[in-house]
# Entry
Amino acid sequence: MPTDNVINRNFESLFKSPVRFEIPFFQRGYAWEMRQWKKLFEDIDAEIIENVKENKFDDEEHFFGPIVVLEKISSDPSLKRFLIIDGQQRITTVYLILSVIKRLLDSKTSHSNDAQKYIYELNSLLTNNISGQDDYLKLKVFSTKGDRLPTYKAIFHHNPSSPHLAEDMQLYNPTDNKIDEFLKFANRRLKSYDVPSLWQLYQAIIKSLKIVWIPLDENKDDAQAIFESLNDAGMPLSASELLCNYIFRPLRNDQTNDHEKLHNEKWLTARGAVGVHVFEDYLRDLFSISQKKRVGLGRRMYVHFKTQNRDLNAVSAKANLDKIHDYTDVYNQIQKPNEFPNPVSEVKKYLIAIGATNMTSIYPFLMALLKSMDNKILSEADTIVILRETYILLIRRKITSLPVTKYDTFFPSLLDKIIYEPDKLRALHTQIQNEQLWVPDQLFEESFAQKALYNQRELNFTRHILQEVDRQMQQYGEHPDYTTIDSVEHILPQTLDEHWKTYLGTDIKQYNLPTITDTIGNLCLNSRNANSSFGQKPFLEKQVAYTDVCALARDVKKRPEPWNISAIEKRSNDLAKEALKVWAWRL
# Structure
């Protein structure tokens, strides 16, 4: 990084002339949070305002960090134009604080003769006196990625007249926009300030808060490379932010700005479709498709992509954006199958069932599978068969508590190995057996009877197993509404009162009683209201009260006394035989 022309400056010198500080495309949006906001205000109070004497703010200094800039040619010779390479969060925060001070002064003009004078001075720092077809040119700190509109509204209190307004309104989400979040925080913090206090804060910010001004040379310095190497106030770039920068590097065109349209239509649309909080998980699974193993988390995902795309050009970058955009539908069908149902009901059914196993490591395989069906490479019938056998594999291995470490290497490239085989079911079974993932019937039956199925941390899986066994046991194929009987009941209570301790006799001394209590032989489905009333009731009372709608409950009603370890084990073995029918390999 160059050291020539590096100087200390304050924000008054940055904003006093017509200027446009642009947040370049490869930067993230505004990202500071409560921790950074509170520290800034606390530092201003403790390090500047409490120390300043006789309001001589020019004599007080508090270092606020560097701002690295790259000067660009402006179409208006009177307007300097800088790209902010590092320091975006700092300069944006200061700009927004000044806007809050101005708004609060606006509300106090009737109480102070000085307020209007102060507002006039603030306006000269906050806005460029420029007229034309785009009101955004009045901003001195200019961003995109959903931040431009709320920044403008913070200063002018209305929407801009701009050819970019419609696009910005689509990008702007007021429920999770950090600009809006900061403005609310700052307004709450400063709303009790009187006019002199607001003016003190203003002077502390523009005169005493010092930055190191570091200008780059466009002919010598790689702005993006410098940007990627820097952390901003302890907030390193996320893997998806780095990835976005890398993909758009060959697409950026400051003359046409086509890259911004692609960013909005492909990248941001994809991120919004799957959800901001799972977007990196989505990218990880997407890039894992057809790989030897699932791609690593976080920055390992970014490094993997760079390694796979060393010679990224405009054509391949657009192809990757299309892929990122086009797979969001199948990802949502897998991750949230009820909210985003697959149009094929049988496919949706197995996606819901697979979701109950909580095995997210198979997502790359499922994404490839569903996309192949969408693209008519796989038939619906073949897709359903493959989904069913995959589901059987996951259930059998989860019930038998066998390791799942191989899933990360088995599933990403699995579809490639079976998709063009004439008998896809046989090909799938061959792959399962070759990787020694096969679970034989005897092992599954024994494990099913002995497993402590009830697990508070995986209640969804427990309910799923009970509901599937109940469906198998229902007569005439008529199934109840399982949303009304979704509470798991322990016939022998988990915590025993004196009645049950006496009733169990010597069984109370069995060391493995807690495990047996959680096996399927001791579990039943009931409504939540009914379940809360059963509690410590004696076995005979429970038998009478259990619903006739649930086949598992009807089975309990037919069981003879006493309800002890022997009775639970017998019922577990009986239900394990039913489970073999539910989760049978299709050989």
In short: The chain has a mean pLDDT of 91. The longest strand covers residues 62-72.
